[in-house]
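Posting this for the archive.
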Amino acid sequence: MFRFAKAPAYLLISALLGTSVAAPANDLSSLPDIGTAAAATLSIEKEMEYGDAYMRMIRASMPVISDPLLSEYIQDLGHRLVANANDVRTPFNFFMIQNRDINAFAFFGGHVAIHSGLFLHANTESELASVVAHEIAHVTQRHLARSMEDQARKSPATLAALIGSMMLAIASPEAGIAAIHATTAASAQGQINYTRSNEKEADRIGIATLSKSGFDVQAMPRFFGRLADQYRYVSTPPPMLLTHPLPESRITDSRSRANQFPARQVQTSQRYQLARARIVARYAGIDNNAALDWLERQARRGNAVMQDAVNYGKALVYIDSEQYEKAHALLDPLLAKEPNNRFYIDSATDLDLHQKHYERAIARLEAALKANPNNKVLRLNLANALQEADRSNESIPILTRYTYDNPNDPNGWHLLAQAQAANGRRDAELAARAELLALRGAWEKAIQLYIQASQIVEVNSLDQARYDARIDQLRLARQRVANL
């Protein structure tokens, strides 16, 4: 699969803070409905607006992983959990950031970010799911909105000042944290208590969501306990332990709550292990030899599923280092055993394109799409393969439909801009590039590109009317953000 350069800057978002009301350990249904209280500060609609603005800033400043296979995996995992969560009031969007630090965070509007480094420490899918379920609970319990309401009550600062401080924290963590302290009168101890209350509440609700979703509930205390032991004496713990502190009481509490649910044996997740191997091979920030060494160590302790994942990861390393025969030796048996596995199809496509076997790659993808015609990974792979084969004109209808169905995916717009440029459609290329800029919150640049596109096409044509209408939409979007 094609890959894009990542933004060089990396930012750290503060933990979600807020008050909570304790519930009996054996009665999860008695958790309070806090939506009304939080709504006094911030409506769901306004949260959605802030979340959209935050997400655009993150795309512009963080190394967001745009890998379609990994995006599909983390979205599927997240929505499996959301389907079994309570008090879901917003859509959810799950995405990954390339960073070796162990961390995850959630913010307004149902956005949940997972660091790639988390995969290196979560041994099972249930352990990863325990972290994601915890972050989902932060959103469903509206911890950020509740924290803002509490701070607004205790401080003369306005809601706008509080939100502005949090927005600044995304752009510049140190400055943002200083601004939050300057605009709130709550004591440091009070903030710590709110954080601990929220963390325990998110653990409690997350464990229930884990159980209903078919995961191993013991994964949460097991994973958290392992992290606490591993980093107990280090001077600088990972960001996850700074924003999600793990005192012994919290680990004990999560273990106690997990014990209230029936024990469940969960089979090794092939998709998780394949995603994990893909991250090690391509997104762990380590060289090829270190990646191969990590994979070898996993092979010695794993079962047949793990061995397949290890071979898959090694094949990726060999593809990226142009050792194509070694890659074939590992990948061909995997593909023969599971010809419909999208991880294997994607990598076989990579291998074919590197070796200029374009028609073979296209034929494989077209056959896979007959069985799964709407799959995003396969559609993007086919469009990319067509472009590599100098058949860009055939990729344009695929990408036009794809960007219509998935307007927030930069992959589609990037490929569409390339295809339009290859076909000499300068106006359409500018429009696709403008959409990429808009996804990063670069409103003025996006508008200027659409103005250029409108000036190129025939006056009073349908294309000009479409471009002008989009200019109006972008100006409204820019004004909404300015109003925030």
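Residues 188-212 form the longest helix (25 residues). The chain is about 65% helix and 5% strand.
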